[in-house]
Amino acid sequence: MSRNSAKKNQPPAESQLVDLYEHPGHLLRRAQQISVSMFHDEIEGVVTPVQYAILRMLSNHPGIDQVTLSGLVAIDTSTGATVCARLEEKGLLVREVIPHNRRQRALRITAAGEQLLEQLIPGLQRLRKRILEPLDEGEKEQFMYLLDKLVHINNPQSRAPLAKLKDGQGEEE
Fold it and tell me: pTM for the full model?
């Protein structure tokens, strides 16, 4: 057997990762930077991406507590409390003491918060189109499928993993 045919049967050598753009984490960080920049372009600074996520989740699950809400948005509880306080100051949500557990707060989106979510829909639709624009239809579907798979399989590795609802309904879609 010649040296060349022996090399053909061996797996390719693992990359030394000297090119920063071979690192999936770096590419994901760059994609996040780009996504946030586009979000601010389309939403015009009305809310941040995390504030939007909190409001959207709260609209879908009114009355949940701050800890559960933070888990559903996959942020740490101290950040969740800070974001909720800011949204409360803006009049977009209300926090109420839970009678049977005075240390927790039940959250409800206000009418102004619901109205804001409705007003954001066109900008969010433009945002989604802009982010996925470089891909053809099949690539868009594949990208979203693979990104969802990557996030869900690696969820336990997160410092703020996505949580499930307490009533067993499963993770928010």
Answer: 0.82
The long-range contacts involving 72-77, CB below 8 angstroms and separated by at least 24 positions, are 72/162, 72/163, 72/165, 72/171, 72/172, 74/155, 74/158, 74/160, 74/161, 74/162, 74/163, 75/50, 75/160, 76/159, 76/160
Residue 164 to residues 26, 67, 93, 169, 170, Cα–Cα distance (Å): 28, 11, 22, 7, 5
Rg, Å, the chain Cα set: 21
Instruction: List, for residues 101-135, the tens digit of each pLDDT value.
Output: 777 789 999 999 999 999 999 999 999 999 999 99
CA distance 170 to 163: 9
Q: How many CB atoms lie within 10 A of CB 162?
A: 16
The closest alpha carbon to 92, from 136, 52, 137, belongs to 52
Pairwise CA distance, residues 165 & 5, whole Å? 56
